[in-house]
Request: fold
Amino acid sequence: MSVVSDTQPAPRRRRARSLVKSLLGFLVVVIVTYLGLLAVTFFIGRVIPIDPVLAVVGDRAPANVVERTRQELGFNEPLTTQFVIYVQKALSGDFGRSVLTTNPVMTDIKRVFPATIELATLGTLIGAILGIPLGVLAAVRRGGWLDQIVRIIGLIGYSVPIFWLGLLALLIFYARLQWVGGPGRIDVVYEYTFTPITGFYLLDSIIQRDWSAFGNIISHLALPSLLLGYFSLAYISRMTRSFMLNELSQEYIVAARAKGLSERRIIWRHALRNAAVPLVTVIALSYAGLLEGSVLTETVFAWPGLGLYITNSLQNADMNAVLGGTIVIGSVFIAINLLSDLLYRLLDPRTRAR
Reply:
């Protein structure tokens, strides 16, 4: 027994080593991915035909001012040195100043990003709450009329441009029927009575018990969140259907039916439970996609989020703001992707055993 214990590590020790190895691998992936994101944004900022120094001082600035500013910003240094400086500043949250607002870029991002998070979160919730049941029912009734409807919904969601649907929705539900609020997050009359606290207007209105403002915020959120929710629904329902079809063909489903379990229990408690593991990744990626891909929606609905901020900055050649916003969105996408991978490992015992 002593020889076996000396030559073979204890199970607890093996698990500890495996955990340390996984954490180190996870850390390496995070570092490499983030450095890749910084490298891409750095070289994009250098190859575009816009001089960042002239964007700061203006086209009519004297030559000595331009040269002094270039030296202060480090643009006279070798490219490798510039990249090191760029990484150091980015890691500390320093993306420079916005030419458009004259504020530090990070200050602007903290102001506008809650609007994007609020919109994307609501859109993802709508997509998950409606998309998962529709995907399950479509798989159970494969080839039936419900399955065909779900597939058509998914096809339209992937095919129709989101800005076209947004304009059409504004024309019908806001301009014609006046069922919802128009562009923006809140009516102008509330801007003097409603005080943002966290930047998440729904939460702020609840904290202040301002139910009139809460209703107005909901009316403005309705169209853009439903629009993003529809595109999220199309993706989630399609993937749910695929996962459920795979689970319903497994042997344990046949065994459960042979034991006399009810069809409802087999579908919702066994098949869906196993399909929920990869669905976590799908929902997380859908959420990240809405965070980074809501630019057109925010532009159509004049939603003052990060997407509209980046769009306006790009139109005004404000590259500090564009690159800063791109880094923040990329960082969030990386974080959500890695978090979904961790959740997948926690929920699936087979990955933990590897």
About this structure: The mean pLDDT is 82.
